[in-house]
Amino acid sequence: MSDSALAPEIESRPEVHLAVVRETVPFDRIPELYDRAYPAIFQALAETGVSPAAAPMGVMHGSPAAEGLDLSVAVPIPQPYTGTGGGITAETIPAARTATMLLRGDFSGLSAAYERLYAWISERGEQPTGIAWEQYLTEPEPGGDPALNETLIGVQLAGD
User: Which residue numbers delimit the AraC effector-binding domain (predicted)?
Assistant: First the structure.
């Protein structure tokens, strides 16, 4: 186990309501989507008087494809999102058994962390459902130390 990632575990997670911008995006344009989506989501939430319920997330749907990743840039909220316009929509991550792992450090370690988590899931004979997510527990700051970033990654599992 590296010092940047803690041991994976399986936990029961409740459903999570989200305000999202969802697009299929080429891999090299993912940062652009995040940079565009989060300000729009936070503005829409402020305009509707809804406060975030937890740290922002990225939710991946299905497997990556040649055209890119089906990605929801998301902010957890207490109730289903009912605002309209601005390309912001409602999404709910269902309650599920979820394999999780905490990654500490730069976002460049995410790919290796997912590989490790999926290998761990496979070793245990578990089956992913096709929903994976990452939750950005610390907000990166310009000029900040990326080694201080904490990202919780999760992969929903089939079965009870």
Answer: 6-158
